[in-house]
Automatic annotation (TrEMBL):
Pfam families for this protein: COX2 (PF00116)
Catalytic activity field: 4 Fe(II)-[cytochrome c] + O2 + 8 H(+)(in) = 4 Fe(III)-[cytochrome c] + 2 H2O + 4 H(+)(out)
Protein name in UniProt: Cytochrome aa3 subunit 2
Subcellular location: Cell envelope
InterPro entries associated with the record: Ba3_CcO_II_C, CcO_II-like_C, Copper_CuA, Cupredoxin, NosZ/Cyto_c_oxidase_sub2
Summary of the function given for this chain in its UniProt record: Subunits I and II form the functional core of the enzyme complex. Electrons originating in cytochrome c are transferred via heme a and Cu(A) to the binuclear center formed by heme a3 and Cu(B).
Keyword entries, A-Z: Copper, Membrane, Metal-binding, Transmembrane, Transmembrane helix
Length: 167
């Protein structure tokens, strides 16, 4: 088969560009590994309680000082574990005074979940093996829904909780 000189040049140029682009994409996608963008702290998903923050008694809302709170959450299909209340029932709603700085620390024991506090700037991906954390200030009163925005299985739509910011 006879190839015209220009045809050969363009073929080489095309193939060369393709190789360069694939290298750039491959490098860009994988050189930092696959992990949640917010944090690089690792944890054993089979034993999250080994980490102080995720011990049963430390789950849910903890007051650090006036206007400063920590919320520790263990996500699993299909629930956010926010600890237990005084009666021993699972906490489904937490209440935080307006203007507080809140540090959310979340991990998963099974699959990838989402952690979005709808209407705020809290929106994280939660991956087993990692701790996702984000600190924010809650300055608007209201009822916020905490939702899982990563499809995680048949009960995905049942995975939510409530956060109330009060005056
Ligand atoms: Cu958890 Cu969707």
């Amino acid at each position: 088969m006879h190839l015209h000189k220009y045809e050969r040049i363009w073929l080489l140029f095309g193939t060369g560009s393709l190789v360069v682009f694939l290298l750039i994409i491959g490098f860009g996608a994988f050189y930092k590994g696959a992990q949640p963008p917010s944090e690089k702290i690792t944890i054993d998903p089979q034993n999250v309680e080994a980490q102080e923050s995720f011990k049963k008694e430390n789950l849910g809302l903890t007051k650090v000082e006036d206007g400063k709170y920590i919320v520790n959450v263990v996500a699993s299909a299909f629930n956010y574990d926010l600890g237990k209340d005084e009666e021993g029932s699972n906490v489904k709603k937490i209440r935080i005074p307006k203007g507080s700085t809140v540090l959310f620390q979340v991990t998963s024991t099974d699959v990838v979940h989402g952690f979005e506090l709808a209407g705020t700037n809290v929106n994280m991906m939660v991956e087993p093996g990692y701790i996702s954390s984000y600190e924010t200030e809650l300055n608007e009163t209201g009822e916020y829904t905490l939702v899982c925005n990563e499809y995680c299985g048949t009960g995905h739509h049942l995975m939510f909780a409530e956060v109330e910011v009060y005056e």
